[in-house]
Predict the structure.
Amino acid sequence: MVRLENLRVGFKGRVLLGDLNVTFPEGELIALAGPNGSGKTTLLKTIGGLASPLFGRVWVNAIPLEGMSRRDRAAAVAFLFQRGSADWPFTVEELVFQGRYPYRRIFGADSAEDRRAGAEAIRAAGLEGYEQRVITELSGGEFQRVLIARAMAQEARVLLLDEPANNLDPKYQYMVMNLVKGLTKTGRTALVSMHDLNLAGLYADRILLLSPGKVAGFGLPEEILQESLLEQVFGLPLKVSPHPEDSRYLSVSFPAR
């Protein structure tokens, strides 16, 4: 569980989002949606401790974030940011096993538990047979799955993902989002920033809709994906309709030209 208490986030004293009092339940995928500059990435960084709050507090599993050691924080929260680097020629297995950092002693070898967690993450991400592939040779979608596998090997209960399906073709968007959704079914909480409102309507349990400086709404997809609210936030008359294959989900489309 993640709870934001009177939280203000920003940088260099500039407030991007103010006075957030929100609880994200465990076992849910929470979509963070909103226009560019509304504070999605900065909020994720603040929740994970990579940026300090301007005011207020972040609680993770009933513990204040500032009270955690770096190792405890790494064991509780895992990151996947949009511009992950594939510059170093690690193998898939080496990169995934980096997720075991919180549990290792300095200069310690991989334990049996490390090997179990890494192998399980590789299997769950559909990367069996990729272990010795060099990450610089992978496609964007394959690399995203490796990063998610690294977060899985970390065994954190809170996952922070910044546009994990960005710049991927439809097949890999589908694979990556199904993988993230599957992780929430094990009790993890996934906070996922996304621009694609169709992905939010299809995968999110709840949506935190941000407008510059404030929260425009937080609730179930059918409560947030309302045409009037979306037009107010994005300045465009978007159209919302039931998903053509399953009316439990919603689709969002641009108005006709």
User: Anything to note?
Assistant: The chain is about 35% helix and 25% strand.
